[in-house]
Amino acid sequence: DGVVYKLNDVSKQTLLGETTRYPKWVIAYKFPAKETVSKILSVDFQIGRTGVLTPVARITPVALHGVTVSNITLHNLHDIRRKDLRIGDTVIIKRAGDVIPAIINKIESLRPEDTEIINPPINCPYCNGEVKVDNEGIFVYCINEQSCMAKIKKQIAHFVSKQGMDIEGIGEELIEKLINNGLVKSSLDLYNLTITQLTNLDGIGVVFATKLITNIANSK
Predict the structure, then answer these.
(1) 133 neighbors 139 (Cβ within 8 angstroms)
(2) What is the pLDDT of residue 207?
(3) Which of 12, 75, 204, 219 has an alpha carbon 20 to 30 Å from 111's alpha carbon atom?
(4) 187, 192, 188, 198: which is closest to 151 by C-alpha?
């Protein structure tokens, strides 16, 4: 995704010197990111572990730098307003760092008359609970702390991840089974699980259940 230029003269390299982070005789140049055009078909709001509802644009699938892009995060309400994005807009897309797809801007001349303004949801799309927009009008939150299962799943997934307690063997599918069967309502409930409870779930044997209980116990 780029090229590095180096001064090919040792004496001049010494003369230029270096900082604590990089030599001054080396320059990195990034190639311009490839761009393409697509259309915003709809916008969903995905929930995170803190309850933030992040807008995600569903676009007409397009090939970009070797992958097919059909979903793009819009980050927050401020980003939507800053770019004046609407459902139905034709937009310019690039992959930031050749990895993450991003909407750069809309093409104003191609905006149809029937575009739809992107508004935050009135209720949480997962639990139908109350939502709140922060004072700056940037983020929208689900404030249902007790019974928004989608938010709780994200919280537990983070808790067991490598960035959290690093509990091996617990993935999103198992978390969903545990919640749906009423075995956990928070991350702390994991420490009350028994082998019998786990083996009563579909697809879980005694060996896996025993190892999982050991992994949970060792993470305390």
Answers:
(1) yes
(2) 94
(3) 75
(4) 187
